[in-house]
Write a structure and sequence with these properties.
Structural class: alpha+beta
Distance between the termini: 84 Å
Number of strands: 9
CATH superfamily: DD-peptidase/beta-lactamase superfamily
Order of helices and strands: HHEEHEHEHHHHHEEHEEEH
Length: about 325
């Protein structure tokens, strides 16, 4: 049976249109598949779990910082959070890279002074003129001890911990061990005893030395051990302290905790209290801080920030980690 010519022509045109449409759909499908393949091949920046705790030994800290990819708002070059109850580092960034720890070193100065002296209220130490001049030449912060001015070990420990007085630290070292060098030997032996395997001390003040190095992990553990000492904990949790009168300071020397004053206005959801800390700064280290926090639900954590370009970054990073893990 033959259809009319018009019908046959219409049928041919419809067939042609259907073929064109089918061809277009095939191309679109192929293009979509190619696009999906390209999308799948693009790596999305993420922080592998291992990168929080490992780094290549042949990289410098600055190179590691520049190559670090982390979607979180972390500003410190090196930082970490330690569970004080277990001694475990639960989160962080380049926690085992060696850095210059600045005045956080004084945590070990406190710990060693505590061990070397039992009668702290009745044991007195002083600094010499040459020691003061060396500290002046290094532009070290001092609480203002004069040459020969005697102060009790108790008072010196508060001055070294709260105000970070380098003269107080040197007085402790020379008075309790005979010299700063001998005191530093005690510091390094204590570090080995505590398992701070990536830490070497060169002085008791935190002033820069290329041989004085540590890590986030070791500094967090050092804070943990210092807080386990009854006397060191008492010192580190004090906000303000005034020493007994001396021959040169008739009203004593008033010290305020640099760390606690830095974080005093922090409100971490009203459920976390920062009870202790130690700050530090030298040009080679930038801003550093270690803090000890407790929460209403009984958690105790230590946060360490090393190498922050601005002081406020030590605080914002601290808040971020505490809120992430303690609430």
């Amino acid at each position: 049976m033959r259809f009319p010519v018009k019908i046959r022509i219409t049928a041919v045109l419809l067939s042609a249109v259907m073929l064109i449409l089918a061809s277009a759909c095939t191309k679109d499908t192929a293009a979509g598949a190619d696009a999906s393949a390209q999308t799948a091949s693009v790596s999305v920046p993420q922080t592998p779990t291992s990168s929080l705790f490992e780094s290549s030994a042949d990289e410098t800290p600055s190179e590691k910082v520049s190559s670090y990819i982390d979607p979180r708002p972390i500003e410190s070059r090196n930082c970490g959070l330690l569970d004080a109850s277990t001694g475990e580092l639960v989160d962080g960034k380049y926690i085992d890279d060696t850095v210059y720890p600045a005045s956080i070193v004084k945590l070990m100065t406190l710990l060693v002074a505590d061990e070397l002296c039992e009668d702290k209220d009745n044991t007195y130490c002083s600094v010499t003129y040459s020691q003061i001049r060396r500290l002046q030449d290094r532009d070290a912060y001092r609480v203002g001890l004069a040459a020969g001015e005697k102060m009790s070990v108790t008072d010196l420990m508060y001055c070294a911990a709260l105000s970070s007085g380098a003269d107080a630290a040197v007085a402790l070292a020379a008075g309790l061990a005979g010299s700063e060098a001998d005191f530093v030997d005690h510091m390094n032996r204590k570090a080995a005893e505590l398992g701070l395997n990536n830490t070497v001390f060169a002085n008791c003040t935190g002033l820069h030395s290329s041989s004085q190095i540590s890590t986030v992990t070791d500094m967090a553990l050092l804070m943990k051990y210092a807080m386990e000492s009854e006397f060191c904990r008492k010192v580190l949790t004090t906000y303000s302290y005034t020493t007994s009168p001396t021959s040169r300071h008739g009203e004593g020397i008033k010290c305020t905790s640099n760390a606690l004053s830095t974080v005093k206005d922090c409100d971490i959801d009203g459920r976390i209290r920062i009870i202790a800390g130690k700050t530090g700064f030298i040009r080679k280290s930038l801003y550093c801080m270690v803090t000890y926090a407790v929460s209403n639900n009984g958690k105790e954590y230590i946060f360490v920030s090393l190498g922050a370009e601005y002081k406020k970054h030590t605080v914002t990073d601290m808040i971020y980690f505490y809120e992430m893990h303690m609430l």
